[in-house]
Design brief:
The protein is mainly α and 59 residues long. It has a domain of 30 residues. It is 46% helix and 0% strand. The radius of gyration is 19 Å and the shape is elongated. It starts with 16 loop residues before the first helix and ends in a 14-residue tail after the last helix.
């Protein structure tokens, strides 16, 4: 079985099967999966990734 190479692997390193599959996904899908993975890991570690920007005028 051969996979098409959507992206070049770093010199001297072979891509894993999962790396090849992710390379075939549209960027929006791989970004969504990455965000979900980071969120899950953060929750397991007890972190909160929520943030709020507040702008104020001095004076």
């Amino acid at each position: 079985m051969t996979f098409p190479t959507a992206k070049a692997a770093p010199v001297g390193e072979d891509r894993t099967v999962m790396g090849r599959i992710v390379g075939l996904l549209p960027p929006s899908v791989s970004l969504k999966l990455a965000r979900k993975s980071i969120q899950d890991y953060s929750e397991q570690a007890g972190h909160d990734l929520a943030y709020k920007l507040q702008w104020s005028v001095p004076g």
